[in-house]
Design brief:
The complex is a heterotrimer of chains A (383), B (296) and C (365). Chain A has 383 residues and is an alpha/beta fold. In chain A, 43% of the residues lie in helices and 17% in strands. Chain A folds into two domains: 192 residues, 3-Layer(aba) Sandwich (Rossmann fold), CATH 3.40.50; 128 residues, Response regulator (Rossmann fold, 3-Layer(aba) Sandwich), CATH 3.40.50. Chain A contains twelve helices and 14 strands. The longest helix of chain A has 20 residues. Chain B has twelve helices and two strands. A two-stranded antiparallel ribbon of chain B has the order 1-2. In chain B, helix 9 packs across helix 10. Chain B has a domain of 203 residues. Chain C is mainly alpha-helical. Chain C has a single domain, classed as ABC transporter involved in vitamin B12 uptake, BtuC (Orthogonal Bundle). In chain C, helix 2 packs parallel to helix 7, helix 3 packs antiparallel against helix 5 and helix 11 packs across helix 12. The longest helix of chain C is centred in the last third of the chain and has 27 residues. The chains are: A alpha/beta (383), B mainly alpha (296), C mainly alpha (365). Chains A and C meet through helix 1, helix 3, helix 4 and helix 6 of A and helix 1, helix 2, strand 6 and helix 12 of C.
Chain lengths: 383, 296, 365
Amino acid sequence: MKKQLSNIFLAVAALCLLAVPAVQAGTIKVGAIFAVTGPASFLGGPEARTARMVVDEINRKGGINGDMIELIVKDSGASPEKAISFAKQLIEEEKVLAIIGPSTSGESMKIKKIAEQGRTPLISCGAAEVIVNPVARYVFKTPQKDSFAVRKIYGEMQKMGISKIAVVAGNTGFGKAGKGQLIKIAPEYGIEIVAAETYDKKATDLSALVAKLMANKNIQAVVNWSIVPAQAIIAKNMRQAGWNVPLFQSHGFGNIKYVQAAGAAAEGIIFPAGRLLVAESLPDSDPQKALLLKYKKDYESRYHEAASTFGGHAYDAMTILAAAIGKGGNDRDKVRDAIEGLKDFPGTGGVFSFSPEDHNGLDISSFVMLEVKDGKFVLYHGK
Amino acid sequence: MTADLFFQYLFAGITYGIMYAIVAIGFNIIYNTTGIINFAQGEFVMLGGMIAISLLHVMPLWLAIAGAVVLTMLVGALIEILFIRWLDNPSVLRMIIITIGLSILIREAALHVWGESIRSLPYFYGNEITTITLGPVRLSPQVLWVIGVCGVVVLLLSVFFKGTPLGREMRACAANRRAAILCGINARNMVTFSFMLSAGIGALAGCVMSPITYTQYDSGTPLAIKGFTVAILGGLGNSMGAVAAGILLGIIEAYSISFVPLAFQDAISITILLIILFVRPHGLFGSGETARLKEF
Amino acid sequence: MKYTKPRAILCLAGLVIAVQVLTRVTGTQYYLTQLTMAAYYALVVIGLTVLMGYAGQISIGHAGFFAIGGYLSAALTTHNLVLFADRPLVLLLDRIGILVRGQDIYGEHLITVAPWAACLLALVAAATIAFLLGIPVLKLKGHYLAMATLGFGTIIYRIALATDYFGEADGISEVPGFTLLPGIGPVPPLVVNGDFGNRVQNYYIAWGVLIIGMVLLLNLIDSRIGRALRSIHGSEEAAEAVGVDTARCKLQVFVLSAVYAALAGVLLTHYNGGLGPSEASVMKSVRYVALVAVGGMANLWGALVMGVGLTFLSLRGVFGSFDDAVFGAILILVMLFAPDGILGLQFHTLAARLKRFGAGGSHDA
């Protein structure tokens, strides 16, 4: 028995040592941690596919200054413990230049300190503002700040004369962060939150919740903040119950699949989002237009599914990193400085201008208000 | 609470409850003939929905549903033949672990086949905002479909088990396997058949529920946990009990949101289950006598 | 077994040192990160082995105990009590000396519970909950026991996911290190944390804890309780008849395995600097069951090897997007072909089983 055991241990140890990675000359390693499977796969899936696509294209064009990019994608399954293990592995063992991802805010917060200690740039695709506030030297993020989305929504509400609202959110990191910002910013706009509820990310029907909220006659509008399928379910349940108050969604609604799922019930939903979803109807002078159309076309022809803003976050992370590599080469600190120095860089989420105080680089103009009309996203021009 | 709200909660609860019950019935069929709880039952529901959605591209809705039911039944039969049929007197522990493993494998396979995005069948009647008004309550017609299908399934099952020779043979296996074999009943085939039947019912449930709940590769497990809860509440193996327990649990869940935050809803339904397990392990509607006679 | 036990433990300790030296010589010390994490998960697995393999009681809720340990320790040592500094309870805690003061990196004052006190509290909480839960739950059998433990795990998961105090979906981040021994003179302090420079120390802490845990369990199963447990697994009625207090025996093992899981949760959380709700999920509990099964159910050494080995590979991302699928497949294959675990497998029996499998459909009972 004992001998058997030690043999196994030795075999495992020997195997591990054989697997020491060989670094090719002229190759720059980039790590990626995405939740390709598990409860956040609707984020991680498009993100990983997008990152692969961008890297393939860079390499097809001969790399960056002649250096090929090697992308190492790790599937965390949205588990922080795996993200932690992978971050350490990528930094020390694979000696990657930088890491893009993780997909969720919870994972990003767990590896923020590791990236700092390992002095490796991290470009997160997580939504929560705490990832870059307070600013950590090596940590950046590409999704727009929640607070901008909240301000966009509240601004619209002011115009419509709405002052009493209900807030519902999914129990994901995205929902949690958004709900927090909604509650925090409401007083600035003279808005009162009459009810706030959280539903499960796997919720299958929310008619009881809708009945409860509907019974409160004060509620003038509902804001739903989530990235899970239940955001289509709540739209259906509201319309089925004959409740016709305006329904505002978050930028997590930026995936045409949710509109298709909600069908007729999605009509009239108002939400803030990046310009990706309405790229065709942008004026030609818009700095993002060409890039948005290209991303959409490339993604849709390669993967045969509609491009979403989630994949866009990875697109931005990868193109920002590529631009920084162009300036800083294969050097973690130089690349970090290059990212911080990027100005007026168009991406799918907006036009990025980073600074030592702002590691998100986007302002409120990165959002536009959209509306669902005839099963499509269109720019919202007010009622 | 106003009367309107009362009835709205009631109907929301019945909707949830019927969905749980129809999953629980699938558990009961297999349990009755084999004494196995099939933890992969939720995956049959998911497979039914997914296959129907895929078939819908090439055939009309009713044919796609029929096709999905038949294909899922084949999957059920295959699972039984490959993983269960040839085991000699396996322990309960072993069976629990095998079916949990199957559930994980089917789910992961579905992820790699269908991807992570959500899909759904169209509403059978009307669309997402069509409603039927019943007094103070507005209902989607799809809810009536779910209730109707559940009712028909329960009815047909009871006719099948009491009135047909095959059904009687299956019941005989459930009552006493050894005696049934001695009477010349092919017990192994009965087990295969019960897997097919429960897979078929699961798939049908997956199809009628899909417009309401959507279908995603991992939508099976939460349903299975709810269905299992309901099966135990109603007394394992008792289909009428499952329907009653399902509706009861659904109604409790619906009303609970007026007292506690929605986020704790699941914790509450499971706490109820634990309490029932501790004081009445044979379920609310099961008989203690038969529970003691069963082998666990 | 009795004669080889001390030697086997010494061999294991020797191996642990050898691996560390080997990684140092070859400059591959990064392997120690995942070996450390895997050791903590293995601690859960060996505790669960005694419950499942020896006492024969399934638990699909052990991730719940892991989470109780991890979450309590993380929340107590992370949440700032400055705002409550004048509350009687906080003053009392301060008086006893279990609060620590400090400053965070942004210069704000922090008052938190000291890690050793939080750890103790977490372990006591896990033991108490296991005790109170175990009394009714362990009376159940078969599917009912499986469902009850699954239900317990789900409740803990739901609470972690719904409570602001536990960080909801984000979990808890920036958990401080856990100083086991303060530094004396030239000897550096013994701290459980994930700093890159602290890796070798943490590797030895984790494996030290695991080896101690292993020795305790090996002694337990060789003792009177161990024999009683095996008699319960064989036949509970028979055990009762010869005078074994089966209820008490099962309860003791249940509490013990819960404490193992909670201790692993506490230490791993401080090592990782945080945790999320995934640690409490049903899938995690199922994974522990899978590791016990693949180790051979009633085989502590098997559980140790498989617990460390498979978790190590999983944490290194070897299985990629098939991580869960691999564990599902392991569960099925082991239960079908090798119910006594892979290490207990002899090839002629495997061949016989495969033959039976091939002939499965054709012959009848």
